[in-house]
Amino acid sequence: MRFIADLHLHSRFAYACSKTLSIEELTKWGMFKGITLLATGDFTHPLWFDELQNDLIPIGNGLFRPKDEIIESVKKVVPKSCHREVYFMLECEVSCIYSKNDRVRKVHHLIYAPDFETVREINSQLAKIGNLTSDGRPILGIDSGELLKIVLQSSDSAYLVPAHAWTPHFAIFGSNSGFDSLEECFGDLTEHIFAIETGLSSDPEMNRLWSKLDTITLISGSDSHSARRIGREANIFDTDLTYDGVWSAIKENDRSKFIGTFEFFPHEGRYHYDGHRNCKILYHPTESADHNNLCPTCGKPLTLGVLHRVMALSDRTTAENVESYQNLIPLDEAIAEVKNVKGVQSKAVQQAYFALIDELGPELEILSSIPIDAIAAAGGRLLAEAIKRIRSGSVSIKPGYDGLYGEIHIFTPHEREKLERIGQPQQPSLF
Ligand SMILES: [Zn+2]
Ligand SMILES: [Zn+2]
């Protein structure tokens, strides 16, 4: 069956994450968004792991469903148009901080497990290394290879995937504290790494410029810190909705089963370009090179972003064998742009968002596949045009850099006025 999976999430126990993140909240937003399979996040955290064991029921194929009370209470607040089954996969993220080859390395990895027993085993090993209770994304003084060993020894079906592989501060290929290859990070164990997460600031096109990743599958996850941001990146599968179904599709990179990904526009990610946010310096990598990668304002090294690292490590000028993917802008951001209001939390945007999914179905279907005419009928001509532009990639975005998200513009003010005028005659006129 065809389904969407968000494979990188967090709980309310992770640093800087929404205090409302619970299985119920995630299930609800899974329905709003149209995501069938969600990662649990944070299974290393003792309180969250207790909650997972209490709220989730194993369905015998490596995946879990929320218990009946949760589903019943969620269905009361989710419109019928969005009702669907939502399943969970056990997942966590570990922040490894260690020194290797005379440099401090800070690398985040995702870990996946098929059952509670495996999680218990992983947690008991990791608890010997550091504190699992202070942060849902524990910071451990452990080498990536040692972490991989623990994962491999816990179960034949537990996997490690480097997270948001290119971001500067906490990633395997990051400019600040990463490596120049998988081998440099994992040594003899590299063969056990078969996938990386692209992260918000890179997309498959960029990753496929580097031949060393040819055998590596590119997966996506939202890494969202609140439920309303889930699915901003996600994977589309057409395979058995089981733990092994998902992982064999990923391992084999079988594109009839792992159909592709939904991606942020990489420019919108917080680390696409280089720069210094405090000094208001925003550079394309070639401009950084012209300045020896130093900030002209403060003189310190620039934060070198994802594009910079892709350009440094890649060995092709055009991408090869790129998987299918669709860049998306979250629906509430598109609505805010259409309504010309700042902030997706405004009442007008929220009302429009819920009215749309009530009428048309889940957000990711509206963004990717519901016919434009149907969107125009439910949400107006301007929104339909916005979604058409998102689907064709005709949007203008000021790139994100040094931790600042990029800024999206779908319409110029002049265009909006013009389109609104064209929209007028459709409305009945008294005159
Ligand atoms: Zn991370
Ligand atoms: Zn500076």
TrEMBL record:
Superkingdom per UniProt: Bacteria
Residue stretches in coiled coil: none
Gene Ontology molecular function, alphabetical: helicase activity
Keyword set, alphabetical order: ATP-binding, Helicase, Hydrolase, Nucleotide-binding
PANTHER family per record: PHOSPHOHYDROLASE, PHP FAMILY, PHOSPHOTRANSFERASE
Protein name: DNA helicase UvrD
Biological classification of the source: Bacteria, Katanobacteria
